[in-house]
Design brief:
126 residues, alpha/beta, six-stranded mixed sheet, 4 helices, globular
Length: 126
């Protein structure tokens, strides 16, 4: 299956975290498992260059970057980080997986950005 931003979001929306206070690495592992279960190829901790490493890279080049953030990260920090990643030709889009939703621009560097909230998937207010 080819990774699209919609297929990545659909797979990540199925995440049900089984315990509180999971680390970012633990949530990343759960997310990778859900993506594999959905039939999407995923690589953890892929380096784009010496200074930029993404949590998950889904699909083949170009692929979708997934960044895991705990809590409610700042909009500026997410947009800045995504902007760096989205400038790479091998990155077609980005999905931010957060506990609590944050409003970010849907297009950065001409490429799509989406947010998936684990709390929203549970029906918890963002």
């Amino acid at each position: 299956m080819t990774a699209t931003i919609n297929s990545v979001c659909a797979a990540l929306a199925e995440i049900r975290l089984t315990r509180a206070n999971m680390t970012e690495a633990e949530v990343e592992a759960v997310a990778a498992g859900m993506l594999v279960k959905a039939g999407l190829p995923v690589r953890r901790q892929r380096s784009l260059d010496r200074q930029n490493r993404v949590d998950l890279f889904v699909g083949t080049d170009p692929g979708i970057v997934v960044e895991v953030k705990l809590g409610r990260p700042s909009r500026w920090a997410i947009e800045h980080q995504c902007g760096r990643y989205l400038n790479f030709p091998i990155v077609a889009g980005a999905v931010i997986l957060v506990e609590r939703t944050v409003d970010v621009r849907r297009i950065i560097s001409g490429k799509p950005v989406r947010v998936v909230s684990t709390n929203a998937a549970w029906g918890i207010a963002p």
